[in-house]
């Protein structure tokens, strides 16, 4: 994917993940993009470790993988903030 698609994909994934984790009011669009892109990397890594394929483009499978990675990333940040 090109950089523009990564930004759009990251914004969409980050926004949905922040809605699920109830952190949307704390995050702006820039943080949503960062969370989405980091989520795609983390989700792709997790899927590769368990034997699946990582992010393969702008499709539903990649969206779900990135969303799971973003949720894991947000959960880790929330846990570290409480400690």
What this model shows, in words?
By secondary structure, this protein is mostly helical. It has one domain (3-82). The chain has 3 helices and no strands. It has helices at residues 3-20, 29-49, 60-82. The longest helix has 23 residues, at 60-82. The radius of gyration is 12 Å and the shape is globular. It starts with a helix and ends with a helix. Its main location: membrane. It is a multi-pass membrane protein. It is found in: Cell membrane.
Key terms:
single chain; 83 residues; mainly alpha; 3 helices; globular; membrane; cell membrane
- Strand element count: 0
| Measured distance between first and last alpha carbons | 37 Å
Largest sheet: none
Low-confidence stretches: none
Average pLDDT number = 85
- Morphology call: globular
Strand content: under 5%
Helix content: over 70%
Number of helices: 3
- Overall SS class: mainly alpha
Tell me the number of structural domains. 1
- Rg, rounded, reads 12 Å
One letter per element, helices H and strands E, the order comes to HHH
Put the structure in a nutshell:
Its main location: membrane. The protein has 83 residues and is mostly helical. The protein contains three helices and no strands.
Provide the fold topology:
Elements: H1 3-20, H2 29-49, H3 60-82
Keywords: Cell membrane, Membrane, Transmembrane, Transmembrane helix
Membrane topology: Multi-pass membrane protein
Transmembrane segments: 6-22, 29-52, 58-77
């Amino acid at each position: 994917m090109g950089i523009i698609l990564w930004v759009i994909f990251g914004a969409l994934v980050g926004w949905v993940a922040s809605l699920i984790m109830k952190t949307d009011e704390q995050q702006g669009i820039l943080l949503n993009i960062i969370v989405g892109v980091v989520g795609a990397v983390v989700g792709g890594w997790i899927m590769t470790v368990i034997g699946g394929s990582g992010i393969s483009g702008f499709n539903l499978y990649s969206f779900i993988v990135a969303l799971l990675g973003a949720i894991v990333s947000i959960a880790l940040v929330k846990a570290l903030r409480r400690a």
